[in-house]
Design a protein that fits this description.
By secondary structure, the chain is mainly β. It is built from five helices and 22 strands. The chain has helices spanning about 1-15, 15-20, 35-45, 65, 305-310; strands at about 80, 85-90, 105-110, 115-120, 130, 135-140, 165-170, 175-180, 190-195, 200-210, 210-215, 220-225, 235-240, 315-320, 325, 350-355, 360-365, 375-380, 390-395, 395-400, 405-410, 420-425. The longest helix is centred in the first third of the chain and has 12 residues, at about 1-15. The chain starts with a helix and ends with a strand.
């Protein structure tokens, strides 16, 4: 009797006219209906007077029955009663608008159904590991763990945006350190600053095609970056050398042990095949003409050359916290040739910086003069010499400064150019 009453009520309301029977059954009054849920409700479910809410994917008659159902993916649209079943309404799925910045992604959180903005993994400097003195790392361009975010290094060979691999090196003590790459198939290798979470490209300490050497400061962390080609497969081995007493490579133009004797000029390279006895015929072409490992001013043949003997005269003293603003055109044009940046020859202003503690220096330059930039020269006991230039950037220089070290910061521009600028010296 109860079955007849239920069916009579449903038929009179028109529910069966558009709704297929759940489970694919064809006969309500027979036993061909294969949905145990349907049979339980129609044939024998107790009537407790409550509006039962079916689970997702189960039969329903109203959206309200589906609204309170748990949903694992709220991005796919709200649960509604569609074709008599609780299912996501894909016409209302969440579509997140993508930002203009290619390094950002706007994605929907399935737990909340809300769009969340985040940086892409490939646009964040993510070191693949660490490397210590005496260790080496072997890798190839096909290995996982590369990023594609660093470029425009102010030192070393020029390179555009390409895939790179990053390791962190922490210096145990202050000493010369060299990283050597045994392949020329890569874009190069660079040593830059590392804040603990960010690679500081502007703080480019050294760069080279197959090797770099620098004076590591005890306790400092450095990011060692190898830029990888994107179109060809290549394999390489990178080795870390510390506390060298001689040259590892007598033909790469690098002073491996920082004794002032590069390649063939170092006694450790005596009688090596890479050290023929010729002369440096051009002291300003950037080439090692006699292939003795001592290009240009590093060669004794250039001891009296004008390019190599040029000196600069200090204008002002600077220290941590110094802020200054001037018009460079009111000063002389003393310096023309720099070994770490573009040729200048404009009106220059020279600052002598030193500190009584080992610290990291951040020098900022603000100017409207397009060709104006910052040159950093380390005093190697010869005063201010442009041939001792180690860093260049138009806007900012970041470099470690050890106790007693004297660094000259020069504001310079293209030939016959100058103008107003503001400069600041900050110490971390």
């Amino acid at each position: 009797m109860r079955v007849a009453l239920v069916l009579t009520a449903l038929l009179s309301s028109g529910c069966f006219e558009a709704a297929p029977l759940p489970g694919g059954g064809a006969d309500v009054f027979g036993q061909s209906v294969d949905s145990y849920t349907w049979q339980a409700e129609v044939q024998g479910a107790p009537d407790n007077g409550k509006n039962e809410v079916p689970p997702p994917g189960m039969p329903c008659t109203t959206d309200d029955q589906c609204a309170s159902m748990p949903q694992s993916d709220k991005c796919s649209g709200p649960l509604r009663c569609i074709n008599w079943e609780c299912q996501a309404d894909v016409s209302q799925e969440v579509n997140c608008v993508q930002p203009a910045d290619p390094c950002q992604a706007n994605t929907c959180n399935p737990l909340t159904g809300l769009c969340e903005l985040a940086m892409k993994d490939t646009c964040v400097c993510k070191p693949t590991g660490t490397i210590k003195c005496g260790q080496y790392r072997e890798f190839s361009t096909s290995d996982a763990g590369t990023t594609n975010v660093l470029s425009d290094y102010p030192c070393g060979p020029p390179v555009g945006l390409s895939s790179e691999r990053v390791w962190i090196f922490e210096a145990d003590k202050t000493e010369p350190v060299k990283f050597a790459l045994n392949s020329e198939e890569f874009g190069g290798i660079w040593v830059i600053g590392y804040s603990g979470s960010e690679c500081l490209t502007a703080s480019c300490i050294a760069g080279g095609k197959t090797g770099v050497a620098f004076m590591a400061q005890a306790g400092y962390k450095y990011a060692i970056v190898v830029e990888q080609p994107t179109s060809t497969a290549a394999f390489a081995k990178m080795t870390a050398y510390c506390g060298l007493e001689g040259e590892v490579d007598c033909s790469d133009g690098i002073d491996d042990n920082f004794d002032g004797k590069v390649d063939c000029a170092d006694p450790s390279c005596a009688n090596k095949d890479a050290c023929p006895a010729n002369n440096e015929v051009n002291c300003s072409d950037g080439e090692d003409n006699d292939q003795d490992g001592k290009p240009d001013c590093a060669d004794e043949d250039c001891a009296d050359d004008t390019w190599c003997t040029e000196i600069c005269i200090m204008d002002f003293e600077a220290e941590c916290g110094t802020v200054d603003a001037r018009v460079s055109a009111e000063y002389a044009a003393d310096v023309t040739n720099y070994t770490c940046g573009p040729e200048a020859g404009g009106y220059d202003v020279i600052y002598r910086f030193s500190s009584n503690t080992s610290t990291q220096i951040v020098v900022n330059l603000e100017t409207e003069v397009e060709s104006m930039g910052l040159y950093a020269l380390v005093d190697q006991g010869q005063g201010c010499k442009p041939s001792n230039c180690f860093n260049y950037n138009k806007k900012q220089l970041i470099f470690p400064n050890q106790f007693g070290q004297v660094t000259y910061l020069i504001v310079d521009a293209a030939k016959n150019k100058g103008g107003y600028y503001e400069i600041s010296f900050n110490c971390n």
